[in-house]
């Protein structure tokens, strides 16, 4: 599970840099201000959670059930949250918005919240 967290943290970090540059340069010309802000939100959340995954992968054994669940929440949450935003903004800018992605974004956000809750549980559990 440690390697899983480190690989996905690294992959999400790499893609956040690529997508951020793509958004700042190529998409700036075709996106509205609201679309660009939404896209940037996806990139920011992706990078934040890439760093969290790396931190967890380098500092925890990630061998308990709730620690594994925490990592899965972060990985799946980033994928659902950020990538649905990318899909919504890219298709919206071309006039054919994939509305089915709309409900996926909050589901991803809920998984991210769950990952943070499990991290708090992990940290507090060590002191009780």
UniProtKB/TrEMBL annotation:
Highest rank taxon of the organism: Bacteria
Signal peptide coordinates: none
Record keyword Transmembrane present: yes
Membrane topology reported for the UniProt record: Multi-pass membrane protein
Classification via Pfam families: DUF423
Spans through the membrane: 45-62, 69-88, 100-124
CC annotations in GO: membrane
Cell location: Membrane
Coiled-coil residue windows: none
Alphabetized UniProt keyword annotations: Membrane, Transmembrane, Transmembrane helix
Family from the record: Belongs to the UPF0382 family.
PANTHER family (alphabetical): TRANSMEMBRANE PROTEIN 256
The protein, known as: DUF423 domain-containing protein
Organism: Euzebyella marina
């Amino acid at each position: 599970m440690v390697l899983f967290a480190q690989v996905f943290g690294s992959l999400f970090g790499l893609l956040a840099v690529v997508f951020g540059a793509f958004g700042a340069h190529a998409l700036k010309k075709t996106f509205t201000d609201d679309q660009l802000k939404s896209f940037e939100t996806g990139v920011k959340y992706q990078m934040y959670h890439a760093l969290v995954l790396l931190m967890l992968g380098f500092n925890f054994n990630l061998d308990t059930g709730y620690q594994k669940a925490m990592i899965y929440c972060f990985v799946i949450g980033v994928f659902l949250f950020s990538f649905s935003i990318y899909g919504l903004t890219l298709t919206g800018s071309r006039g054919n918005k994939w509305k089915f992605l709309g409900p996926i974004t909050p589901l991803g956000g809920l998984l991210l919240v769950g990952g943070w809750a499990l991290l708090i549980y992990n940290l507090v559990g060590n002191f009780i």
